[in-house]
Specification:
single chain, two-stranded antiparallel sheet, 2 helices, flat
């Protein structure tokens, strides 16, 4: 296709990546490191009191993860 035809008809471009979700039955809270707290501050987000990490249990087969969540970027033209 000619580039000018794409530019005339394209409304948006979407990119998607699937990331693993932590198992709700066994995820364990942990304190933030100083580096992680700084990352939240750098992007002007409220710093959470804790994060969670995978542990592993029979419900998730010992992996600590159950299911996936999409992370989506959308570029409107």
């Amino acid at each position: 296709a000619e580039p000018y035809l794409i530019a005339e008809t394209l409304i948006a471009a979407v990119a998607q990546r699937l990331v693993c979700s932590l198992c709700g039955a066994c995820k364990a809270p942990r304190a933030l490191t100083d580096e992680e707290a700084q990352l939240f501050s750098d992007v002007e987000l409220d710093v959470p009191a804790s994060l969670h990490e995978p542990v592993g249990c029979p419900a998730c087969g010992g992996s600590g993860f159950a299911g996936r969540q999409p992370i989506v970027d959308m570029l409107t033209i």
